[in-house]
Amino acid sequence: MGAAQSVFQGFANPVDPSPAELRAWAHQPDAVPLHTMPPDWDLLVSGDHLISTLMELAMDRQCPARRFAVHCLYIYAADAIRTNFRAHPKRRLRKMVEHVEHDGDDLLRIWAHNVRMLLARPELFDYRDWCEGGLVRHPRRLSS
Length: 144
Fold this sequence. Notes:
With 144 residues, this protein is mainly alpha-helical. Helix content is 54%, strand content 0%. It has eight helices and no strands. It has helices spanning 19-27, 41-45, 51-59, 66-82, 90-103, 106-120, 127-131, 134-137. The longest helix has 17 residues, at 66-82. The N and C termini lie far apart (45 Å).
């Protein structure tokens, strides 16, 4: 068991987990099921503090919580774009999209495509798709 898959010991503060706690949980998500987390936990963890960890988890095809991480990437991107990059830096989002376009699999390339579509056409935003997991449960490329 590698460092990324250390035994999950729980969260010191579930509304503000550390990157190490989130990484350990993602490899043992049944230890604390999502439905027992604080309300809107996905929204709470989808910020700048954990986005690098979430990207790492989303890129890991073996991660049991990978779909959750991709869901958080959708939340992060939508939050950045819909606030005109007041919530999150445009440069960081652009680098994430480029990284995924180069190194990601189909699921993540769909995310990158959808982010580019939302950048070009913000009216394509649908809360259920971007913030409630619709685009993760039913992956599809948005079209103009």
